[in-house]
What we know:
- There is one protein chain.
- The chain is of the alpha+beta class.
- The protein has two domains: 1-44; 47-134, Immunoglobulin-like (Sandwich).
- The protein is built from one helix and nine strands; from the N terminus they run H-E-E-E-E-E-E-E-E-E.
- It has one helix spanning 2-43, and strands at 47-49, 56-61, 64-65, 69-71, 76-81, 89-91, 107-112, 116-122, 129-134.
- It has a five-stranded mixed sheet, with no helix packed on it. The chain has a four-stranded mixed sheet with strand order 4-9-8-6, with no helix packed on it.
- It starts with a helix and ends with a strand.
- Bound molecules: copper (II) ion.
- Residues 87, 122, 124-125, 128 line the site of copper (II) ion.
- Copper (II) ion (CU) binds next to loops.
Amino acid sequence: MRPIARGIAAFATALALAACSGGGTPTQAPAGGTQAPAATTAASAPCADSTGTTTVSEGVANNTWQQPINAKVGDVITWTNSDSVPHKVALDDGSCAMSANIPAGGSKSLAFSVAGTFPFHCAVHPNMKGTITIS
Ligand SMILES: [Cu+2]
């Protein structure tokens, strides 16, 4: 019994050592490498459409954006359109815009991933201007 038990213990120790020394290093590099490109692509725009629960409610009426617009990184900012024509939030610097119009009587949301001051306009009516401040 004793020699067998000792043999099992030695075998288990050898397995544990092999798992520690052999497993870690080679598997980490490919995992990090595959994640980086996707994250870089998604983070390039400061905002994106959101279907999450609204945390900041804004409006647009009489072809005028409700102002001021103050929100935090990650807030779901939802614009409700009281007009009979569509509107669409587009940042002046072209880095981000809603993917579609806010339909007449409807609503649409954006969420920002970075803080900053973002001048914007309506993609349908370029003279409709406003500023979104993200903290
Ligand atoms: Cu408009």
